[in-house]
Automatic annotation (TrEMBL):
GO terms for molecular function: kinase activity. Pfam families: FGGY_C, FGGY_N. Residues 289-430 form the Carbohydrate kinase FGGY C-terminal domain. This is Xylulokinase. Residues 3-239 form the Carbohydrate kinase FGGY N-terminal domain. Belongs to the FGGY kinase family. GO terms for biological process: D-xylose metabolic process.
Amino acid sequence: MTLLGIDLGTTSVKAAVYRDDGTRVAGAARGHTTRRPAPGWAEQDPSDWWGGLCGVVAELDAAGALGGLDGIGVCSQVNTHVVTDAGGAALHPAITWQDRRCADVAAGLTARLDDATRAAVRGGLGTVDPTHPAARAAWLAAHAPGVWERSRWVLAPKDQLLLRLTGVAVADPISSIGLVDAGGTYPAWLDAVVPGLTGRLAPLGDPAALVGETTGAGGLPPGVPVAHGTMDAWSSLLGGGIAAPGDAIDVAGTSEVLAMAAGPGGGAPGIVTFPTWRGLHVHAGPTQAGGDALAWASRMLGLDLPSALTTAAGAGPGCGGVLFLPQLSGERAPLWDPHLRAHWLGATFDTGPAELARAGMEGVAHAARHVLEVLEQAAGTTAGSLAVCGGGSASDLWCQIKADVLDRPLRRTAERDAGVLGAAVLAGLAVGGGSLADLTDRMVAVEREFTPDPSTRGVYDDAHGRYRGAQRDLAAMFVP
């Protein structure tokens, strides 16, 4: 069986063809940009997504990898929304998950909900945050009423791709966390706060159900079955081998996403609890910035990212007392505070680029530790180890820093693009290639394990206490 996985991420479209034993036949990627036309705004041009898809498909075709495809799976960034016409053509720039323009709108919508409704919003978080589709829709209705009136669909990025590839508009309940109620349907309160919203939301289907077949659009061969797919983080869980209670993962991408499978029930404030899917009960916490924060710190130091990683190796654990708080655009889990801001703290005349660069890496690790602490409360158990994948996992130094800060072994997957592999796994499920456990057992492999260095324990425990204290003490400074 041959499967194609596609991941429309925050910084690129990636795709790869796999055999069902996990062998990567060929892969390709095309980058796209995020535009920031106003403070707090973060937009993408959906035509860049389509151009990226066509580019990777052309490269895979040139490599002879697209012949005999049995299925296609797609995942994407979520809490990014694009409004389209009936055929999937975008009517407005996509408002991404990093965009904070709707903070005031979201607060107003939350205030209009009763307590029972709040308890069901966004996986139990209880608030309509600035990335919620209702907040985005309300903002568009107020600021671009012509666009809103002409719109047919409000779609996640993957669902726009699916519409253009198959001609069918669909969504899935996992990507739609916060939109769907416990029964897996769109709740009535959405239309109460934004009239006409539910009529613009696509019908829901299981991530591993078939949408239809390719039409030949985008350069893909026609007639190939396509799965609904899901969000990139969830797809990365599958691509990282998360299949049983106690399994945990760190997806080291543009943001840092930690997730853990557990038994039924559980939950904790600030953590998203997903609807049960095929026996998986998953709790998760996405930060606002991971690799993106380190990329920013690198630019501020006048370095490209590889040079920053090399420079950081010149500093020791704790960075000579320097801390970095990576909340460049607020924070998501577990604080969900759009007003937090980033800082380098504790610099002295002895501080140099090495300490500042390593502090950037350690700051992201401290944000991940904060999430993990609450995640384990939600799951009611301790993670014995974590799989790690994503672009940030390519750095041995960063993986070791995270293992030391988290005080947990990290198992780096052989396939860094776990979201792409997870999308292929969903395609395999959709076309009857085996059970979830069978497919992940065959297709997911561990390349290296990083074990915590006990000599760093005291340094990082102290640094984490100072990190959390600084975050608390500085939070009020940036509230309007």
